[in-house]
Design a protein that fits this description.
Largest sheet of chain B: 11 strands, mixed
Number of strands of chain A: 0
Structural class of chain B: alpha/beta
CATH topology of chain A: Non-ribosomal Peptide Synthetase Peptidyl Carrier Protein, Chain A
Largest sheet of chain A: none
Number of domains of chain B: 2
CATH architecture of chain A: Orthogonal Bundle
Number of helices of chain A: 4
Distance between the termini of chain B: 19 Å
CATH class of chain A: Mainly Alpha
Number of helices of chain B: 24
Number of strands of chain B: 27
Helix content of chain B: 25-40%
Shape of chain A: globular
Largest interface: A-B, 18 and 19 residues
Helix content of chain A: 55-70%
Shape of chain B: globular
CATH architecture of the largest domain in chain B: 3-Layer(aba) Sandwich
Radius of gyration of chain B: 24 Å
Structural class of chain A: mainly alpha
CATH superfamily of the largest domain in chain B: Thiolase/Chalcone synthase
Oligomer: heterodimer
Chain lengths: 88, 730
Amino acid sequence: MRQLIEELKVKLIDILNLQDITPDKFDENGQLVGGELGIDSIDVLEMVVMVEKDYGIIINNQEVGEKVFSSLASLARYIKENSSKASS
Amino acid sequence: MTSTTVYIAGVGIISALGSGFAETEKTLRANRSAIKPLTLFSLLQGTPLPVGQVDVDGLDLPSALPRTHSLALLAAGQAMAGGNHPPDAVIIGTTTGGIATTEQLLRNAEPNKELYRYHGLNTVAQYVGRELGCSGPALTVSTACSSGAVAIALGMAMLRAGQARTVLVGGVDSLSRLTYFGFHSLQLVDRNGCRPLDANRQGLAVAEGAGMLLLTTIQPDQPRAELLGTGLSCDAYHAAAPHPEGQGAFMAMQNALADAGLHPEDISYINLHGTGTPDNDLAEAKAVRRLFAVPPPLSSIKGASGHSLAAAGGVEAVVSVMAISQGLMPANTGLQQVDPALGLMPLISPVEGPVKAVLSNSFGFGGNNGSLVIGAPGACVQQSSARPCGVLAIHGYACLSGAGNTGATMERINCGASAAGMAELAQISENLPPQLIRRLKRLPRMTLSLAVMAHQNSGFDAQKPGSIFMGTGWGALSETHDFLTRLNSSKEQFPSPTDFVGSVHNGPASQVAIMFGAMGANITASGGDYSFEQALLAADLMYHDGERPALILGADEGHAAFSPLLDASIATGSALADGGGAFAVSRTTKGAKCGMAIPFFASCEKNAVIEQLIASLASSKEWQSRYALVLVGIPAAMEGQGEKQLDHFKALAQLSAPLIRYRKLTGEFASASAVAAAFAASFLERGLVPGAFVGGMDIVLNWSQNTILVLGFGQNITAMELFKPSEKNT
């Protein structure tokens, strides 16, 4: 789990071109969307694409999306739960 | 001030609903949805999504002409039917231009740039203008999904100003991979069709079409309707999402009613934008309820037609004319259970009855909004509305070039050296907050940087600009390129929502609006090598905000892959150049650095065009001695023709002022004239044209020799003047 969280920090900084933050400063429990990082609905869609592309998990429901992207930690949990479901 | 009645003399419409007025009426009367799974192009995977595709023979002839152009000409032909005279001007709103053709060429890795010649948005209006025999201005508006409505608004302003007596206006877009996959990547497409205002709506259906109107101030024998008023606004809120309370939508509708001199209770029917996306319909409903104590009958036709993007404003203006002339208020097709959160009661079936006045809405990405009021002939007294008056007074200016910002650029220019090239991305972003620009690529960064510099230079300080007028020949090439590249490399699986939102031509100007909270008119013109001139023309016609200043900008980016392929003036393998200019203006000359005007804009095909150019400049007997300097722009691709035009001008005008070819100093790019205008503003502020620049003595600018002329030759003949404010001009 820790490894996935660290991996996601690097990915989000890269795909969203987050300027003011480094992986070690990234609070995985902090508010991800609409928080200090300035992440908005377009970024969420960019993350949806990344999750599908890199982890094979499709998020196409706004309600699910809101929960999944509430924090980086919840995103990691969702990926872990759904990829283990897929592989089991 | 007298009022000018603007008549709608002819209409043309082609969409998924059918081709022509009669066919469209039949489909709308049947309350039938024309949305079906896409068949226009094949997909690499997945089932085709429902779209509003035009189903007419002869659209895809084996020619280089893109589908957008064919759609535009079909609708234009219908609108002109019965008329013997070409219109004085053509103004078309489009976002796709030749992209559908370009996508196919890129897939085949086609290197022959000749085949990409119809890529530019401006080629649509040019093609239609030429086919109709119009030799006046052919202008292109690109404000995403409000393009058609904004083009109509610009046409009305041109008629009211007396610059034309007939104008063909409207919007057009064709289906393309860019829009099909772009909206899909934003999760804005409803897989079950499109159900505007429905409780279970899940998005729009991407569509195509064209809607054109022939507007005239000459009373026709049988006018279809009258265009009573137009209203523009900008949300200044987000690049893709509408303002949650519909603030911009409210302002556009309010402005349109005020412009028409009508009250909400005068409106018989509202044609909603109603795309079917959850956010749009909710925001629009809030705005309608705020403006109308008791809303009149209303509906969105997009459940039947889909959303034809830039065409929608034109298509729905024609449907509004139909509501009036046929007494037909179309149904909100596709609606099963109205969303109670909207608080509206859309028409569930077509309703017949007398319709005196229609309000039609079009809203787009970047929060660019346009509303139109169309009335029955003679039913409403047209009010005289506020017209722009006073010169455009430049209080601040800025430019970007290969040399860098205004200071760095002018340092080179003042020595007579070239500033051509491409500045580093970091350099053009240095005055911008990192968080604001993290998602922005080259063109929006250049535009924001220019806007900040021009505003700072103006001394307006806390008085932020309220209206934005932008010209860009090619739009955001990086975003467009990257979107298509990722679409192809991922086998159509992972298109980028960020690049799609960034690819719209009005993206940069809407970013400027967001930064300054500019909620007034926000127009992006895309007129190829004359884009900045078109933005200036639009500003001169549409900017009349007494409260807040405006920004007029022109910028284009150099792109390693696309610029040499798409821009005929850029040779393959040659060094790229880009940049732009920006001007913070108001209508008061007090404290201004100089004034700016655009006395001439016409197609090179106009009869005796050089003579007419000179006539537009020769305001007095001593007109020649007014000029201290002439800056001349001839795009490289038009060298031969442009040289002849220039020689003709020189022979007739007999000017003693030196002529300088500015593209040698700026490099070749579409909006180079914006940079040339910034040179002129800088010289006027200093009070002299440096000797090194003209290869002679310094030229002192004084009360008699007070004007710098910026001429454009080639496909269009244009003249801009920058001058020291004199008492005559205040």
